[in-house]
Amino acid sequence: TCFFSLYSHKNSQKMANLTLVTEFLLMGFSKSWELQVLHAILFLLIYLMSLMGNLVIFTLISLDEHLHSPMYFFLKNLSFLDLCFISTTLPKSITNSLSNSRSISFMGCVLQFFLVILFAASELFLLTVMSYDRYVAICQPLHYEVIMTRRLCVKMAAVSWFFGIVFGTLYSATTFTLPFCHSKIHQFFCDVPSLLRLSCSDVHIGVDVTLAMGVAYGILCFISITISYGPIFSTVLKIPTTEGRSKAFSTCIPHLIVLMVFITTSVIVYLKPSQQSDSILDVLLSMFYAVVPPTLNPVIYSLRNKDMKTSLRKLIARKHIP
């Protein structure tokens, strides 16, 4: 009884602070104007690099018929997702820093939140599908074209968007029905952990259930990736020539690096207890799953890819021919 009355008193105090939140403040990295400008310049450079890299990949794969294979189909979809993902967070953060404003409207926060979850969940499934594509290409090369048909590829890409929309809707519906006592988000975009810390209620069963579903989704994707890569590494190690092994590994290792960065940082951020206060570490970890993958993906997937380099040279040569 004593514990219940203490909890009720604490909760009633929180509810007493309840105000109608019409906008949130994205506190970002620093209160210093000089550091805000520095942050804006850094984010602008990252955004332009990501934008250019992903647009180049998307354009090359769309225009070059030699790149119309399942692997490049998924890479094209990944580039589009990355473009959308990074465009959801960085432009607003850059604008706020340059204008010395931190505000984002309630509906703006809802939309940004929904899109971040949508693109993150879609990208995770797409990366999982890409690991299966590599498994078929390396372990069953003779049946690759029979298994990875155009129809199957389109269905897999559609399913990735489906999961993104489902999780985006669930997370948004359960999070924004909570009562908020504060409006300061110690992040550069609207995300789940930061918004939970603003809630007046200590009980958020809907969000907890959705988070559990998200974790289960992530674990299933991770297991699927592990199952795909076990036979891949086993097959690659049996390749007699060093050149053959090197070529096979060059298509797999970059994919694994992106996955590990994306999954581990997401898990750390979303499984951190919501009672703990925000820190600069949370902001940096959020960067690693919301900013780093969309920026690195074009570099990782095209830097050592001969087909992409050849296609780019052809496109540049075509532009210079009168």
Automatic annotation (TrEMBL):
Name the domain of life: Eukaryota
Instruction: Name the UniProt key words of this record, in alphabetical order.
Output: Cell membrane, G-protein coupled receptor, Membrane, Olfaction, Receptor, Sensory transduction, Transducer, Transmembrane, Transmembrane helix
Q: Which CDD domains match?
A: 7tmA_OR14-like
Q: Which GO terms describe its cellular component?
A: plasma membrane
Membrane topology annotation: Multi-pass membrane protein
> Which Gene Ontology terms cover its molecular function?
G protein-coupled receptor activity; odorant binding; olfactory receptor activity
- Per UniProt, residues of the G-protein coupled receptors family 1 profile domain are 53-301
State its location(s): Cell membrane
Using the UniProt record, give the first listed, main subcellular location: membrane
State the SUPFAM superfamilies in the record: Family A G protein-coupled receptor-like (SSF81321)
Q: Which family does it belong to?
A: Belongs to the G-protein coupled receptor 1 family.
| The protein, known as | Olfactory receptor
Organism for this UniProt entry: Monodelphis domestica
This protein's gene is called LOC100022818
